[in-house]
Known about the structure:
It is built from 15 helices and seven strands. By secondary structure, the protein is of the alpha+beta class. The protein folds into two domains: 22-203 and 316-368, no CATH class; 209-306, no CATH class. It has a five-stranded antiparallel β-sheet with strand order 1-3-4-5-6, with helices on both faces. Strands 2-7 form a two-stranded antiparallel ribbon. Strand 3 and strand 4 form a beta hairpin. Helix 1 crosses helix 4 (70-81), helix 1 packs across helix 14 (334-350) and helix 3 (51-61) crosses helix 4. The two termini are 24 Å apart.
Amino acid sequence: MKRSGTVDLPLHGGRAPRWLFQRMVRLAGAVTEALIYEYGREELLRRVSDPYWFQAFSCVLGFDWHSSGTTTTACGALKTALDPEEHGIAVAGGKGRASRRTLDEIGEYGDVFSLSTKKQERLRYTSRITAKVDSSCIQDGYQLYHHSFLFTEDGQWAVVQQGMGRDQARRYHWHCGSLAGDFVTEPHTGIACDEVGKRTLDMTARESREARKASLDLVKDGPSHLRRYFRPSAQRSLEDFAASQERDFGLPAHHPVLEADITRQGWEVLERAYEIQPSSYEELVALKGMGPKKVRALALISELVFGAPPSWRDPVKYSFTHGGKDGFPYPVDRETYDHSIQVLKDAVEGAKLEKRERLGAIKRLKDFL
């Protein structure tokens, strides 16, 4: 077969046209309304936290699988379509500036649901810690810019957030039912991206359990003990020997852990952590100011001092294209895939839509398959 050409499909800026977004809102409302009626609000949260279903849902709304904006626009359509008072489910946050209103909106919608102050504070904490984990505990080079927090009048929740790399996006899915006791032990229902990093610090991996424990012990011992691991040794290094021999061994000019890497404010954060004496790694990570540099430094020292190496395996689990028939980048999970599609198909068929719109949505779903 003659190849007539190739095409790259990069991420690009801009917004969905108003006419298209209005149509997406109507379709998203009809589909989710049917799904809630048939399966319940909690099932909608589970579906949104499933990368397979979410990608298919965005395609049904009008996107091709490769289009930019599937995450932000699909979540925006859901936020506009779902009425907390009518549907018993709210979507807080969103893209960019909207994400910074998440905590306030949780309070606003929480009042609509008559949630107690304690439950609202727990939901706010959940929003903060999920963003903190994906920006500090998983250091994969993707900067978070989108955070959608979905929750029901019963206090159940799901999170869909996305980060941007150089020319790729990465989406992180969470669901309250997937947590194994805390927010820092392989908590995701899925992480979707087309690119797998060669070296990614993942402090949420089960292999990082000892590194998490050692990091906590280091902080509880106090910053004064930590400082000695940052001071350069008086002993000559291999790099010094290379320089004296006028040879280039290709060694890095910067050691990954130096005292200069932790600023004065950074040491103040560690001092505050020492005074608080956090009882768990999650509590340590949740502290204000405990960002990626400090998490990384503690992980490296944990390996150096205690021989507790963290995981450097990229935790990405799904490609936006669901895998391939040839098993690349991984085999398709057919049972999960088929179930996700069937739930969405049932919802589309049961939605209150004109025949033309319903057929168009089902056709896009078939094209996606």
